[in-house]
Amino acid sequence: MSITREYNVPLSTLSTFRIGGIAREVVTVTTEDDLAEVFRLMPQGQKWFLLGGGSNIVFPDGDLDMTLIRPKILGIRLEHDIELVVGSGEIWDSVVAFAVENDLSGIETLSWIPGTAGATPVQNVGAYGTEISDVLTSLRAFDLWTKSIVTFSNKDCKFGYRDSIFKHGGKGRYVITEITLALSRELPDVPQYPGVADYLAEHNIRAASLVDIRSAIIAIRTKKLPDPKEVASVGSFFKNTFVSIEKANQLRAEYPTLAIYGIDEKTAKVGTGSLIDTMGWKGKRIGNFSLYKGNAMVIVNEGAGTRAELGDVVRQIQNAVHEKYGISIEPEPELLVF
Ligand SMILES: Cc1cc2nc3c(=O)[nH]c(=O)nc-3n(C[C@H](O)[C@H](O)[C@H](O)COP(=O)(O)OP(=O)(O)OC[C@H]3O[C@@H](n4cnc5c(N)ncnc54)[C@H](O)[C@@H]3O)c2cc1C
To answer: Does any domain span residue 231?
Structure first.
């Protein structure tokens, strides 16, 4: 059990987008009891915010007169042969590595997503056809209203596309402390994405193992996404867009390079990166920001970017997309406002 308090920490060191002033106080806890204690000691009216790895947050420019709470609750346990019980402070990619090393399938396509295990249910992280909601069976959370630990089933989490209850009614109420994933001993199908097939062909792999699939995903992501250690971003800045089949057909006819996937008989998903890319904006510099050369959905902070300027840049991109395709695109990360 340990509670660590740090004061006056630059926000640029706490989020991968590297924007913001100073955080007055950052409290790191390592157990559920620590969490309860931190909230018990917190003065009435004190503002606070939960921070994982800061890879899906954009802080405001000024100083934050509030307490940032980081749950660093660690531990990965294997139960009933296929269940992984994971502390919320574990680094997500280490969890994927652990699963693959232990011949457990189900999360290998979620390789190399930055951040902590505890944040994965918040936006229902997803990549290459898998979402955390496909494997999460339950989670434990500290409930600030009842000051007790509660359990959520998968259904209770109200998962949607990059969405869950923890972005809505559960926000500011629950701190996720542990997640439980039901994985499988079966070898998964190879994900049907062009880059994966190319990687396997290049490496002469006919029957892909779990390790091969993880390696393929990491190789593709390394090409398409910036390494947060070197380039400041929050990954995809915009969510993909869902449109009616009629709209999808119209877009396909007019812009054959767009990435459009049928979801059901009424809906199709449009890759927002392809909307921006087809405008010729991939790699475009806009003030102190740019659209990443490997993936137009990623906004890069070139160094001196501020939150105020980012607002203008985002609006410019949204307006240009709307003007060309008649589609509204929405930011994916949490844009903190206080
Ligand atoms: C290069 C790059 C690639 C990325 N690729 C993907 C991708 O493929 N797919 C994808 O879905 N996302 C992707 N992301 C976004 C991001 O990595 C994920 O959303 C990740 O789950 C965020 O984890 P974090 O610990 O950094 O959360 P943070 O950014 O610290 O927090 C995100 C939100 O979760 C809340 N939160 C954090 N911890 C807890 C907790 N224990 N309990 C309750 N709430 C909590 C925070 O308050 C905040 O609202 C990418 C980001 C980068 C930089």
So the answer is: no
